[in-house]
Amino acid sequence: MILKTYARVFTQDLTASLVFFEQLIGRGADLRFTSGELELAAIGDILLIGGAEEALAPLRPSYGPLIVDDLTQTQALLEQAGAVITHPLTRTPTGAMLYARHPDGNLVEYMQWLPELVKRIIG
Fold it and tell me: Per-residue pLDDT tens for 15-39?
């Protein structure tokens, strides 16, 4: 089951973008962390992804993330529906993720958060 979806916003200056969205939304970030060469921050239904253009380029053609309650079950459902897993289930600072190419060609990131994040952000 999909619990939450995000619209990605790519930026080369995460801090400036986050300040802008905090003013628009009227509150602080729900999450902020670093993963490899990328800085990420979530606020409302926006996921800001910051980094050098070279680091951002591979992510630009994809959608998501879609936060799900059970990533293993989601993977099975995706594969039954004809999706191809292009990046296998991998642990992340916030839980676990995978990428799947849907039968229509769209590349989508699926993520299962750690239980404490689900409780804090989704309720």
Answer: 999 999 999 999 999 999 999 999 9
